[in-house]
C-alpha cells in the first residue's frame, strides 16, 4: 500500500479565509479545517452567537452579516485569499405555492452575495504570491 504524501499542518499560514454560513454545519467544519491549516479565518454568519462561538473555537474573527443585504456583503473584508461561499437556505414547495419573496431571498443569499464577495476579493488575491 502506497503512503499518502504528508502535508504540513500549517500549509495555509499567512493566508486569510472568508467563510460564509460558518456558524454551523459544513461552514463550521470549513472554518475549523482552515484554521487548523494555519489560515486566519473570517467566520461570517447572520447567527451572531454561533459565529462568535466558532470564531472563539478556531481563533478566527466573527463577522455577523445578513447576506441578503447588499450593504452588509459590501462591508465584508476584502483581504481574503480564500473564499468559501457556503451560506444558503432552502424552501421546498410546488412552484404554484412557492412565495416569490422567498425565491428572491434565496437568490440574494446564494447568487448575488457570492458574486459580490468574489467580485471584491480578486485585487487582494492577485497581489499574493
Please explain how this structure is put together.
This protein has 129 residues and is an alpha/beta fold. The protein contains five helices and four strands, in the order βαβαβαβαα. It has helices spanning 25-36, 48-58, 70-74, 100-120, 122-126, and strands at 16-20, 40-45, 61-64, 82-84. The protein has a four-stranded parallel sheet with strand order 3-2-1-4, with helices on one face. Strand 2, helix 2 (48-58) and strand 3 (61-64) form a beta-alpha-beta unit. Helix 1 packs parallel to helix 2 (48-58). It is globular. The model has no long low-confidence stretch (mean pLDDT 93).
Quickly count the helices: 5
Radius of gyration: 16 Å
Number of strands: 4
Largest sheet: 4 strands, parallel
What's the assembly state of these chains?
Answer: single chain
* Large-scale geometry: globular
Low-confidence stretches: none
Q: Which structural class should the secondary elements be placed in?
A: alpha/beta
Strand % is 5-15%
Strand neighbour order, sheet with most strands? 3-2-1-4
Element-by-element helix/strand order: EHEHEHEHH
**Share of helical residues:** 40-55%
Distance between the termini: 36 Å
Average pLDDT metric: 93
Secondary structure elements and pairings:
Layout: E1 16-20, H1 25-36, E2 40-45, H2 48-58, E3 61-64, H3 70-74, E4 82-84, H4 100-120, H5 122-126
Helix pairs in contact: 1-2
Quick structural summary:
It is built from five helices and four strands.
Amino acid at each position: 500500500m502506497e503512503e499518502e504524501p504528508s502535508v504540513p499542518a500549517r500549509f495555509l499560514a499567512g493566508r486569510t479565509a472568508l467563510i460564509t454560513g460558518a456558524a454551523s454545519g459544513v461552514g463550521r467544519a470549513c472554518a475549523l479545517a482552515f484554521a487548523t491549516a494555519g489560515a486566519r479565518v473570517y467566520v461570517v454568519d447572520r447567527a451572531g452567537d454561533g459565529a462568535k462561538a466558532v470564531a472563539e473555537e478556531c481563533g478566527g474573527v466573527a463577522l455577523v452579516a445578513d447576506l441578503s443585504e447588499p450593504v452588509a456583503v459590501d462591508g465584508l473584508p476584502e483581504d481574503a485569499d480564500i473564499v468559501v461561499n457556503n451560506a444558503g437556505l432552502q424552501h421546498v414547495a410546488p412552484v404554484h405555492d412557492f412565495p416569490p419573496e422567498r425565491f428572491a431571498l434565496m437568490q440574494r443569499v446564494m447568487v448575488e452575495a457570492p458574486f459580490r464577495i468574489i467580485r471584491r476579493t480578486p485585487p487582494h488575491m492577485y497581489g499574493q504570491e
